[in-house]
Records
---
Amino acid sequence: MTRQIIGSIYDYPNLYDVLFSDLCRSEIKFLTFIFQRFNNKKNIRSVFEPACGSGRLLYHLAKCGFDVAGLDLNPYAVAFCNRRLKRYGFRESANVGNMVSFSLADLGRKKKFDAAFNFVSSFLHLITEADARQHLHTVADILQPNSIYLLGIHLKPEGESVCSQERWSIRRGSLTVKSHLRPLSQDKKKRIEMIEFCVEAETPKKRYNIIDRFPFRMYSARLS
């Protein structure tokens, strides 16, 4: 029997971590390549991730020798991230906070970071232009001069969308996680899109379905 849960997928960082685990290798390869390429201008050692979630990328970057720190609004995700960092001998460097506005002091830091990154469209959770702008100013304030901020978002295609939904699944041990992400509605004037994110988790003894709905801000190559 499937148990249905109406709530936030971010309250289940273990499932979120599994769901995006296949991306880690390519993401870390990309990040380290960019950091190395940028090293001719700046020696990048400390990196920061706003909206770090489960901390899957922070953990892998820490393994690569980087000094990492993160921020996320969800306390369950932050606790999950810090437990993993501690388990493998790294400093518990994730903090609970809003990525719109924060300071180095909020992150327990005195020295500014060499680089920052934000992937999987987390930036789209900032649904007003004011919040988006404030976030960019805030990140700039905690970075060293002439640093780099890698921001990854989905851009809406011009005209009719060629891909209106996404499905993917992954298995780790006896756990299978399937997801279905689709838009429910769009307000092009306000640039707001309502998203439904359904995640189904199944083990030999349990099966449950998490249904999460939230707004995203829309960007395109023309409206970015």
---
Amino acid sequence: MIERVISYGGHFGKILNPSSMDVYLAKIFAVRYTIILVGLISTLQMLDLLAKSEEILAGKGASYADLWSYVKLRTPHLISLFSPFVALLTSVLTLSVLNVHSEIVVIKAAGWSAFRIIIPLMIVSLFIATLNFVFSETVTVHARAELRNWEGNNFDADIPPAPNAVYDTWVTDGQNLVKAESANRNGSILLLDQITQYIRDKDKNITNIIKADFGIYRNNNWKLYGVKNFDVDTLEIRILENLDWVTTIPPERFISLAIVADQVNLPRLRRTIEQLKLEGHSTDTLDTMMYQKFVSPLSTILMPLLAGLAAFGLHRSGNLLIRILITLLIGFSFFVINNLFIALGQYGAVPPIIAAWLPLLLFGLAGISFILQTEE
């Protein structure tokens, strides 16, 4: 088995000098991938638009042109999300058709192993994964943020560009808790909206609740406006026009703690994680999503390996359809288990690096093991 794995590694040396068979397999895989991707995304986008069209047109000043704007913002997300699934369907279709037409038998008769047949498909999948990663980091994250901003404004027309803002931020200030409904940054100025401070004693019992309509951080100082101070012991409320807020909370923490990982690119996400780690905060959620930015595109390469079950075997036995269904079931299982491990990683039940990479590695090894067994 080990000698066979080593010998198969030499197949990758032929990538820079592909044969006509390599080109043929890569071409039919790429063409079918493109057709299935366009068809699936078009169908899903049409159904999504039908469900959202009434809500979009109900926005203030909305017109039918806004439907096209919604499509432009929604389509990048659908492409990034369903690209690995399309690779699975394409791999199963390509290898099954080759099997039905006995092309697999002919290719093997020419001296090609099962693994050698899969390599051109994996090379194309690697190219697709690279494009998907670049597309997600340059287009999809910005489209998601802009769409969320538009949805937050009830699909009104002529809204300002999406601000550098986050929502529902909770931070700790020593024993105290601070909640802000939103945090917006404009250069060196940070604006917090609807601030609530829970002042606690050394036993963590709440003694005061301070609410402010908004707060501004400027020139290294915080100032709160529209302040109400509720004393829990006396049940009295003091109303202040403004209040100087003395706190040890770094301003950037409000933005960092509430950042949405799939709406920012990788460099910004890494900076946020590093900053929160320096301050002693848990970053399991952000770490898991950072690794997932790599795993999600790379799962495209996994799909030809899983599809090997549908390719290698005699279709005359009548089991081809069963093998195709089993392959699709295994592919769906990967997506389900991957999402399960993401949730476990985000809640800290599993280390983020294991939660992100383990499903990909396990299913990859399973696919390689099956292909190697077909050579027995």
---
Amino acid sequence: MSRDRFLALLTMFHLNNDTKAARGQSGYDSLFKIRPVTDTLITKFQDVYTPEEQPTIEEAICPFQGRIFFRLYIKGKPHKYGTKMFELCEAKSGYVYNLDVYTGAHPTNSEHNTALSVVNRSCDKIKGKGHCVYMDRWFSSPKIFDHLWGCKTKAVGTVMSNRKEMPEQAFSGILKKGEKISCQRDHLLAIKWKDIRDVFFLTTAHEDVLVEAPSSRRAHHKNKTSCSVGLQQV
């Protein structure tokens, strides 16, 4: 096949019906041109494999330089331009079990891109199956951990100290390196631990104990919280 013939066919290549609702209209789907592909892939990802106990929710960038309105620039990423995706991955292998492409503000649902909504959609297929979800501080909050606990799913993660329902007054004390302060409410444990700087954790899967673990230099050991060791292992 000649180059010109290939390019001519490529301009006519479609994966979905172009007569869908236009942008700005009710029912518009930003991914409608590739929706059959993404839906099929996610279904296959979930049909052929079941992740182990410790999946993680992560934010990823798919490099892309094309012309789409939801392309983002994120300074700290290896690939700074692309489409942002929320992924539920198996920590051990990196297998992607579920993903959600960020397409900007939802036209009708202002809560669509909140951390709670993203976590709820990402974990929908693993709820109540004995998993413990790990996440970073962008996602985690007491509200999200309570929600997952109600769905019979544990969770662990770092957390911002100013999240709603965090025990700010109890965590106001100054700590020396290796010390911790903790507060527990029913199933939820919040910890402030001093490393080089203050680090805050939430967990519904660990006990309130310090364990001896290797430092980054490997020649020395230091006291760490059990949930921080768990986060390092995933």
